[in-house]
């Protein structure tokens, strides 16, 4: 029985219930014994119901992961993005299940580098699992946006902790994330274009049929990008990627080093997190300052490099922000974010130009030229704002301190 959340002094009211069968089967796998328990049936609420199938695998990490990986090649097998009780609550209320994790990971409770790495990977895998089902064109842009942000944060985590945990499994997992990012990118780019620059051009030229033709072609490209993404997320590749992430958490492959290397590896993994974080942030801060020296004279290409360094620092600063809570950290993050966003307008403009150019002869050349003109007009103002944001960031300075 699934129960509603009520005040403690009020009666508990059932709002949904599961009915079905439960079967248990002992299995022998090459990696060892596994006990499989299958729960299948329906969740029922007053006004709705839905089919449910949950598979619980119990055994050693190697045996469970090995069996799950083989099953995932042919079956839609993924860790559930919501517990059965939460699925019942959402069904009864006619809404989507709530996310177990949102935003960046909170590393305030992590004492060592390894604890932080494990916590961050687990948190961001949960974020990706929650938003994967929402990556559909009819669901709006939020699913793709949040999944892409979560994926970027996860790749940043792997890069941040690579010096302490370098191993082949970590590199292979990152390569899988990059391949998924390549699928998410086009869907997100068309979302941004249609809701941003495309909408602005249409508003400025109401009733212009050539612009309408361009936007119609762009929407077709968006639908195709979402279709390709959906195939990827519903296929075995995404399932294997998630299981590879779980394997990192359960098996900690970065500890599988030669005996003579073990003392140094353990020392790196057990380093106090604040010391590790401050050293890394110092390095990225100095790199950003170096890239931005004499920024007022920078070419568009040089400003792009500043944007990339700002993005790398922003993800790391966001990750470690809970270690230095307070006004200074919030101010630094706000100013760094403003710089990256202002510099990002120029990048978005370049992306928009590439998108409309990809439409080719299917749309009037005049419409493509009009969009490119609008895009170019945004760059000058964005550059001015970016220079101001750079000055503000330099005045704020770093918010972290060494122990």
Automatic annotation (TrEMBL):
Pfam families per UniProt: CHAD (PF05235)
InterPro entries linked: CHAD_dom (IPR007899), CHAD_dom_sf (IPR038186)
CHAD domain ranges (all copies): 110-399
Signal peptide: none
Name this protein carries in UniProt: CHAD domain-containing protein
Gene3D superfamilies found in the cross-reference section: CHAD domain (1.40.20.10)
């Amino acid at each position: 029985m699934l129960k509603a959340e009520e005040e403690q002094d009020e009666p508990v009211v059932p709002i949904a219930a599961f009915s079905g069968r439960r079967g248990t089967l002992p299995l022998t796998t090459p990696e060892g014994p596994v006990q499989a328990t299958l729960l299948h049936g329906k969740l029922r609420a007053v006004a709705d119901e839905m089919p449910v199938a949950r598979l619980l695998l119990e055994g050693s990490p190697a045996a469970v992961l090995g069996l799950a990986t083989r099953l995932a090649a042919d079956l839609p097998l993924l860790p559930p993005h919501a517990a059965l009780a939460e699925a019942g609550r959402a069904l009864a209320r006619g809404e989507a299940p709530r996310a177990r994790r949102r935003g960046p990971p909170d590393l305030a409770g992590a004492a060592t580098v390894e604890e932080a790495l494990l916590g961050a990977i687990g948190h961001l895998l949960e974020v990706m699992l929650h938003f994967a089902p929402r990556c559909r064109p009819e669901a709006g842009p939020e699913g793709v946006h949040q999944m892409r942000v979560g994926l970027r944060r996860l790749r940043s985590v792997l890069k941040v902790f690579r010096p302490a945990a370098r191993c082949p499994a970590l590199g292979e997992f990152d390569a899988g994330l990059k391949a998924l990012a390549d699928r998410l990118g086009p869907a997100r780019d068309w979302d941004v274009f249609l809701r941003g620059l495309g909408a602005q051009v249409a508003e400025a030229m109401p009733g212009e049929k050539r612009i309408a033709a361009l936007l119609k072609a762009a929407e077709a490209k968006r639908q195709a990008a979402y279709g390709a993404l959906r195939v990827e997320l519903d296929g075995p590749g995404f399932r294997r990627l998630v299981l590879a992430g779980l394997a990192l958490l359960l098996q900690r492959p970065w500890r599988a080093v030669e005996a003579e290397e073990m003392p140094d590896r353990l020392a790196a993994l057990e380093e106090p997190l604040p010391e590790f974080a401050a050293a890394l942030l110092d390095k990225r801060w100095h790199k950003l300052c170096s890239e931005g020296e004499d920024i007022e004279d920078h070419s568009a290409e040089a400003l792009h490099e500043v944007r990339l360094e700002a993005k790398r620092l922003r993800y790391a600063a966001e990750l470690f922000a809970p270690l230095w809570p307070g006004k200074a950290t919030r101010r630094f993050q706000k100013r760094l974010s403003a710089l990256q966003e202002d510099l990002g307008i120029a990048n978005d403009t370049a992306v928009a130009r590439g998108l409309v150019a990809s439409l080719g002869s299917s749309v009037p050349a005049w419409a493509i030229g009009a969009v490119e003109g609008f895009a170019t007009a945004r760059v000058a103002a964005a550059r001015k704002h970016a220079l101001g944001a750079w000055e503000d960031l330099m005045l704020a300075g770093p918010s972290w301190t060494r122990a």
